[in-house]
Specification:
Blueprint (H helix, E strand, L loop, with lengths): L29 H6 L24 E3 L31 E3 L17 E5 L34 H6 L1 H6 L4 E4 L3 E3 L7 E7 L5 H14 L3 E6 L9 H9 L45 H18 L3 E4 L7 H14 L4 E4 L17 E4 H11 L22 H21 L15 E2 L9 H4 L4 H13 L4 E4 L35 H16 L1 H5 L1 E4 L2 E4 L18 E2 L4 E7 L9 E6 L8 E5 L7 E8 L5 E3 L5 E5 L4 E6 L8
Length: about 650
């Protein structure tokens, strides 16, 4: 049917699939992956398409020297330079130290993860059609809080080729537990896969197929509450004070009433006072053991690769330490990712509660930077501790630098090796939107150029990156840009039924930046330090000011130019990459002098540039390159391809 086309033209040959043992600790086979992209006509370049839509001032060329399409991937990143020497350090504050591959750490794979978040009811229907007798809203209809549209686990399996074509190597889904809610955060049984999604057999097949491709799978777990239909809570409702499970919950009086009651007038403890979410009592040994068993069971039974743990702060810390220990006893490489807001280095790493967390702090900084210059939409978008405020480059450095420095400091002071102590910043999962927030493109008022820069910034930052389904094709909100952006409007069905409306340029950009992250070892494992970037000072009218008018020798920064270097302590560990992002919408930067850690005389080539940014640069005697960047442009500079060993 029109709703269930399984691969959308992207297929993986057997020879191209990655092995499970090597997929996440080495770069993908870019030649094979690029050959799966839609054919490009001779003379047509990704950065020069006349048919581009919503491209604004950010048309891109990805892997600049590799856009030669006949034959594919035969370009080079420039010529070997005879002056190559071991890496030297650059001036500028080091924010994150390098984190080279550590084969002895079973969780090392997570640092290389590029994650695709799936909301199962809204990703793809079962190719065989809906289950007989079920009542569903039409696929693509306006979502409501309670409606189901029939997405299924088999729909995910049928579209793994598409997912992998995005450069994704890890899938994370919201819960698949038996539930009365379309999001499955109201679990009726933690140890059953909802039959509406396909049941246990379909889930087992999905995990097997994911692993055959060398990919990983992380499942969402929500354990601070159940749904009203949970078997233990229905026992309480039926048996009241005689129920053997009354101690699993927190009744305030009897009889317990769960239906026909208003919020804030419920006589049992609920999550956020919602009657349909009775809180579990973690002082009860039976509750603790049951949830610990659940954590182990999914890893044993289905071989999942980790847990994303929903809103864990209402459960005692010591429980999570035991949960993590029990899960890793089954699979030492199973990651635990806490949904934690703010900066929480005390919660992640060896001896702590989780291995990683959802780094919403990255989202607040990066959205604020690419959206600088106009008002970001936040009404009915996000709340709590996820607040986005427009910032310039210095604001980004101040805020994101503090976040990284907090985790780096804790990691260093705990004397942790690469896999020990408090978590290294490269373990934190970066994201800027999800099923819990308005979509980034909605917040950016449809500015696709800003979204493209945001995606590139995430690919160039330390830590796994997370992409919410539909971002890659330009989904904004079921209500459009003028309507509300948050739940349920941000949970619209993936538009398989409207493929002609996909933003193909954005889709290609997502593929490009994800493959860039896979290809450039520095983007995954290098440290991060800010680069000094200055230009000749300007007079109030915008012209260059004479040096004598400026106490800093006539130099100034560009307030909307963000520059950092992903670096290694030694060239033997890896090759550095300089990342530049100019978010200004009106004027270019002029000629900027950017200090790097590369050696004088070395030639840097563009692994990525926006249209209008040159592709080759020579490092001067001071270790600097000169670069001019148009409005809303970006570049990633490094040594030629044959200098890269990893």
């Amino acid at each position: 049917s029109a709703l269930t086309s399984s691969t959308r033209g992207y297929s993986l040959d057997a020879d191209d699939t990655m092995t499970a043992t090597s997929a996440l600790t080495s770069a993908l086979n870019l030649a094979a992956l690029r050959s799966r992209r839609p054919a490009t006509a001779p003379g047509d370049r990704l950065h020069n398409r006349s048919s581009s839509k919503n491209l604004g001032r950010f048309p891109v060329r990805v892997f600049a020297a590799d856009t030669q399409q006949t034959p594919p991937n035969q370009g080079t990143w420039g010529d070997w330079n005879d002056l190559v020497k071991p890496g030297q350090s650059a001036t500028g504050r080091v924010v994150v130290t390098p984190s080279p591959t550590d084969p002895g750490n079973p969780l090392d794979w997570w640092k290389d993860a590029i994650v695709y978040q799936i909301f199962p009811d809204r990703f793809a229907p079962d190719p065989a059609g809906p289950q007989p007798g079920t009542s569903l809203d039409p696929w693509g209809s306006t979502p409501t809080i309670r409606s189901f549209q029939g997405g299924s686990i088999k729909g995910i399996t049928a579209n793994l080729d598409y997912i992998q074509s995005l450069g994704i190597n890890t899938i994370y889904t919201t819960p698949v537990f038996l539930s009365t809610a379309n999001h499955r955060y109201h679990p009726s049984d933690f140890m059953k896969v909802d039959p509406m999604l396909g049941g246990e057999d379909a889930f087992r097949e999905l995990i097997d197929e994911v692993h055959k491709r060398g990919m990983r799978f992380v499942l969402d777990g929500v354990f601070n509450h159940t749904g009203r239909g949970h078997w233990a809570f229905t026992s309480l409702l039926d048996g009241q004070e005689q129920s053997p499970y009354k101690g699993w919950f927190l009744p305030k009086s009897f009889p317990v009433r769960a239906y026909d009651v208003e919020r804030y007038h419920v006589n049992y403890e609920c999550w956020w006072d919602l009657p349909d979410l009775p809180k579990l009592n973690f002082d009860n040994e039976g509750v603790r053991e049951h949830i610990l068993d659940v954590g182990e069971w999914w890893v044993k039974e289905f071989n999942i690769d980790g847990w994303r743990l929903d809103y864990p702060i209402e459960i005692p810390n010591e429980f999570w330490k035991e949960y993590r220990r029990r899960v890793r006893a089954v699979n030492p490489g199973a990651v635990t990712v806490g949904e934690l807001f703010g900066v929480r280095p005390d919660c992640v790493g060896e001896g702590n509660h989780f291995d990683s967390l959802m780094n919403y702090a990255f989202g607040t900084c990066s959205l604020g930077f690419v959206g600088c210059g106009f008002e970001l939409r936040q009404d009915d978008a996000i709340g709590g501790e996820y607040q986005v405020i427009a910032v310039d480059a210095q604001g980004f450095k101040d805020n994101f630098g503090e976040v990284c420095a907090a985790y780096q400091k804790a990691h260093t002071e705990s004397k942790g090796g690469l896999g020990g102590g408090s978590a290294h910043p490269s373990m934190l999962m970066n994201l800027f939107d999800s099923h819990d927030t308005a979509r980034a493109l909605w917040m950016l008022q449809g500015d696709t150029a800003a979204l493209k820069m945001l995606l590139l910034i995430m690919a160039c930052a330390p830590g796994p990156s997370m992409l919410y389904q539909g971002t890659e094709v330009g989904q904004t909100s079921a209500n459009g840009l003028k309507g509300a952006g948050r739940d349920p409007a941000n949970r619209e069905a993936f538009p398989w039924h409207k493929e002609d409306e996909w933003d193909v340029d954005l889709l290609e950009h997502v593929r490009g930046v994800n493959h860039l992250r896979q290809d450039l070892y520095a983007l995954r494992r290098g440290g991060l330090r800010w680069c000094d970037a200055t230009r000749q000072a300007r007079a109030p009218d915008g012209s260059e000011a004479p040096k004598e008018l400026n106490p800093e020798e006539g130099r100034e920064e560009c307030e909307n130019l963000l520059a950092w270097e992903r670096f290694f302590d030694s060239r033997d560990d890896g090759v550095d990459a300089v990342c530049l992002f100019h978010s200004g919408r009106v004027e270019g930067t002029g000629v900027m002098t950017v200090r790097t850690g590369f050696n004088p005389g070395e030639t840097l080539v563009a692994a990525y540039t926006s249209l209008g940014v040159e592709g080759n640069y020579t490092v001067d005697a001071e270790g600097c390159v000169k670069i001019s960047m148009p409005p809303q442009s970006a570049a990633v500079l490094t040594l030629p391809r044959d200098m890269h060993k990893k």
